[in-house]
Design brief:
The complex is a heterodimer of chains A (111) and B (112). Helices cover 0% and strands 53% of the residues of chain A. Chain A is mainly β. Classes of the chains: A mainly beta (111), B mainly beta (112).
């Protein structure tokens, strides 16, 4: 059974610091990985996708993938209070497959 | 461009009643997904369609749940009869075929 594991938190980070979120997955055939941000009472919002080993940067966000270790991470630089949310890690087998989600990490950025 | 549209946004119904949730995907997207989110189980895939054809319904919890996609711009998720344990937020998402999925605002269902 496919599983995606995340630490539920809360993870508390001071404003301006780097927030580091981690995720592991069980299915070795997983090809695509995603980070979604979800504010309380809102829908998940896609913030990053990564498909190959290494780092992918987009603004203040960097996603990292290590398929050998079955590990995905998200770094948020210069953390802002508006980054406070639940971050969901998701995987898929590639193509137009459904996503398997972790239960999310609750991130709190302290002003 | 409009995002994924879901209706109703909130639904309160009594146990045993039929519930129909509706979704309009983003224009041009040919994959549509139904998810359910609860505190206990997180976000779970129920069913997904490619080009209006159901591909994988292994996440549908019971025969009480059914989903249809009669055309590229409309899908329904029906629960009949509804039970209190069906209370959750139901999300519809669409994708242009591969990779990224974009979520609608969700329908919060309460079954009393």
């Amino acid at each position: 059974q496919k599983e995606v594991e995340q630490n539920s938190g809360p993870l508390s980070v001071p404003e301006g610091a780097i927030a580091s979120l981690n995720c592991t997955y069980s299915d070795r055939v997983s090809q695509s990985f995603f980070w979604y941000r979800q504010y309380s009472g809102k829908s998940p919002e896609l913030i990053m996708s990564i498909y190959s080993n290494g780092d992918k940067e987009d603004g203040r966000f960097t996603a990292q993938l290590n398929k050998a270790s079955q590990y995905v991470s998200l770094l948020i630089r210069d953390s802002q209070p508006s980054d406070s949310a639940t971050y969901l890690c998701a995987s898929s087998g590639g193509g137009a497959d459904g996503l398997t989600f972790g239960k999310g990490t609750h991130l709190i950025i302290q002003p | 461009d409009a995002g994924v549209i879901q209706s109703p946004r909130h639904e309160v119904t009594e146990m045993g009643q039929e519930v129909t949730l509706r979704c309009k995907p983003i224009s041009g997207h040919n994959s549509l997904f139904w998810y359910r989110q609860t505190m206990m189980r997180g976000l779970e895939l129920l069913i997904y369609f490619n080009n209006n054809v159901p591909i994988d319904d292994s996440g549908m919890p019971e025969d009480r749940f059914s989903a249809k996609m009669p055309n590229a711009s409309f899908s329904t998720l029906k629960i009949q009869p509804s039970e209190p344990r069906d209370s959750a937020v139901y999300f519809c998402a669409s994708s242009p075929g591969v990779h990224e999925q974009y979520f609608g605002p969700g329908t919060r269902l309460t079954v009393t």
